């Protein structure tokens, strides 16, 4: 039997704070979308999985939903598809972090199948080049590579590899 759990004040405060952060980042364009004049990928797309990891799948979904609604009406660079993808990304990142990988795989495959074949003449038939990145993401999700990444993400004591990789990236990155 599943008990109903009430939200604590701390959780409500975190949801509101992360919603405001998500809304603010929906105003900041990070990368231009190639082929779409004036369109940009905002920093909110980068923030959504972090929110899902910190708050978990359900509170992360609530936070990105609230922040996305506000950002949808006020942010000039925020796209409606970004609204839906932010919610899904927060849910999947939260599920993966809380070790619900099998449920995440089933949901990802279901959404991928629905996206590819809806309507009946969907992107699989009309624009197969749009599907390759999603299929690669699914293959990484079901591969052992995901297990190694999630194990290293939870191991806070052994961050020497991450630290050395970040130093190398900073050292060899072009200066602006």
Features:
176 residues; 2 strands; mainly alpha; two-stranded antiparallel sheet; single chain
Low-confidence stretches: none
Distance separating the two termini? 57 Å
Q: Care to count the β-strands?
A: 2
Query: Quick one: biggest sheet?
Result: 2 strands, antiparallel
- Order of secondary-structure elements: HEEHHHHHHHH
Overall helicity: 55-70%
Structural class: mainly alpha
Could you say which overall geometry the principal axes of the C-alpha atoms support?
A: globular
Strand order of the largest sheet: 1-2
Mean pLDDT: 80
- In DSSP terms (H or I, runs of 4 or more residues), the helix count works out at 9
Radius of gyration: 18 Å
| Percentage of residues in strands | under 5%
SSE blueprint and pairings:
Blueprint: H1 9-25, E1 29-32, E2 40-42, H2 44-55, H3 57-74, H4 80-97, H5 101-117, H6 123-126, H7 132-142, H8 144-154, H9 160-172
Antiparallel strand pairs: 1-2
């Amino acid at each position: 039997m599943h008990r109903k759990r009430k939200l604590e004040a701390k959780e409500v405060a975190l949801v509101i704070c992360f919603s405001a952060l998500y809304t603010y980042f929906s105003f900041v364009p990070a990368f231009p979308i190639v082929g779409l004049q004036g369109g940009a990928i905002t920093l909110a797309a980068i923030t959504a999985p972090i929110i899902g990891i910190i708050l978990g799948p359900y509170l992360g979904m609530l936070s990105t939903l609230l922040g996305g609604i506000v950002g949808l009406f006020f942010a000039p660079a925020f796209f409606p598809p970004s609204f839906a993808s932010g919610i899904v990304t927060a849910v999947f990142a939260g599920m993966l972090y809380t070790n619900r990988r099998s449920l995440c795989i089933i949901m990802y495959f279901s959404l991928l199948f629905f996206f590819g074949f809806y309507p009946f003449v969907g992107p699989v038939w009309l624009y197969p080049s749009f599907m390759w990145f999603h299929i690669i993401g699914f293959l990484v999700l079901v591969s052992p590579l995901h297990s190694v990444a999630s194990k290293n993400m939870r191991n806070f004591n052994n961050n020497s590899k991450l630290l050395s990789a970040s130093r190398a990236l900073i050292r060899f990155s072009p200066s602006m």
